[in-house]
Amino acid sequence: MRLPLIALTLIALPVSAMAQQPPATNAAITVPAADVQAKIAAAQAAVASGKPLPPMELLALAPYRANIEYRTSVGGASTHREENEFFYAIEGSGHLVTGGKLVAEKDGGRNVMGSAIEGGSGRDLAKGDWVMVPAGVAHWFDRIDGRLVLMSIKMPK
């Protein structure tokens, strides 16, 4: 009885190990423009309350994840303790404030949230613009001109 059980275990081990292999990292991940536009259209259709939708994953390769953010109104401010955040404006425009101090600060562990920013410096952001916000720097979109569609990537510092 022991021999068949040992043989079965030895056969099952390689199969189990193969099932747990991570995906190949030598292959590129491609997201066609049509897929990006479909996500934007889905977000636009879902907007009913006027609040920003949660980010929608576009693609991921650990530890990175690219998201689509669809904003039609001003949301909260935040600081990411351990991550830099990269933004690319796909469509629309708005105003981004960085630096300064969070208002009504709430500690969320890896992130600190606030209702706004006091102080800081602002810049207009429009289609085609790129922004990198370093870890530990407060940031807040304090004006959205109709809508602002962003690609965002958080990167370990």
Biggest sheet details: 6 strands, antiparallel
Radius of gyration: 21 Å
- Estimate what percentage of residues fall within beta strands: over 45%
Number of helices: 2
Quickly give the structural class.
alpha+beta
Percent helix range:
10-25%
Uncertain segments of ≥5 residues (pLDDT<50)? 3-20
First and last CA, distance: 55 Å
Task: Output mean pLDDT.
Answer: 86
CATH topology of the domain at 50-157: Jelly Rolls
CATH class of the domain at 50-157: Mainly Beta
**What string, H for helix and E for strand, traces the elements in order?**
HHEEEEEEEEEEE
Shape: globular
CATH superfamily membership of the domain at 50-157, which one? Answer: Jelly Rolls
Give me the count of strands. Answer: 11
List the helices and strands and how they pair.
Layout lengths: L1 H18 L13 H14 L9 E6 L2 E8 L5 E4 L2 E16 L2 E3 L2 E2 L3 E4 L1 E3 L2 E6 L3 E4 L5 E18 L1
Antiparallel strand pairs: 1-2, 2-11, 3-7, 4-9, 4-10, 4-11, 5-8, 6-7
Describe this structure in words.
The chain is α+β, with helices and mostly antiparallel strands and 157 residues long. It has a domain at 50-157: Jelly Rolls (Sandwich). It has helices at residues 2-19, 33-46; strands spanning 56-61, 64-71, 77-80, 83-98, 101-103, 106-107, 111-114, 116-118, 121-126, 130-133, 139-156. The longest helix is centred in the N-terminal third of the chain and has 18 residues, at 2-19. It is globular.
Q: What structural keywords apply?
A:
alpha+beta, 47% strand, Jelly Rolls, 20% helix, 157 residues, six-stranded antiparallel beta sheet, globular, three-stranded antiparallel beta sheet
